Amino acid sequence: RRFEKIACSISVRGKKAEEILKKGLAVKEFELRKRNFSNTGNFGFGIQEHIDLGMRYDPYTGIFGMDF
Predict the structure, then answer these.
(1) What residues contact 29, with CB distance under 8 A and at least 6 apart?
(2) How many whole angstroms separate alpha carbon 34 and alpha carbon 42?
(3) C-alpha gyration radius of the chain
(4) What is the pairing mode between strands 66-67 and 46-47?
């Protein structure tokens, strides 16, 4: 629907995944909290603004966050 927020989930592997993860961790200054890790070894974190990853700002889209 027009102007409603959506969510999507993707899988990225290989060198591109490493590049994106490094940029995301750099935004967090390479520090995560204990709560970002599960008991099974998985982890996740979010960032507030996608432009912190070096992405171009598009006024039509605006600012959006991302979850890793």
Answers:
(1) none
(2) 11
(3) 14
(4) antiparallel
- Nearest in space to 32 (alpha carbons), one of 23, 45, 20, 17: 45
Whole-number Å distance between alpha carbons of 37 and 43: 4
pLDDT score for 20: 82
pTM, two decimals, is: 0.61
Rounded Cα distance between 25 and 46, Å, is 10
Q: What is the pLDDT of residue 14?
A: 94
Query: What distance in Å separates the CA atoms of residue 32 and residue 36, rounded to the nearest whole number?
Result: 6
- Mean pLDDT in consecutive groups of 10 residues from the start of the chain, 68 residues: 72 88 84 88 79 73 70
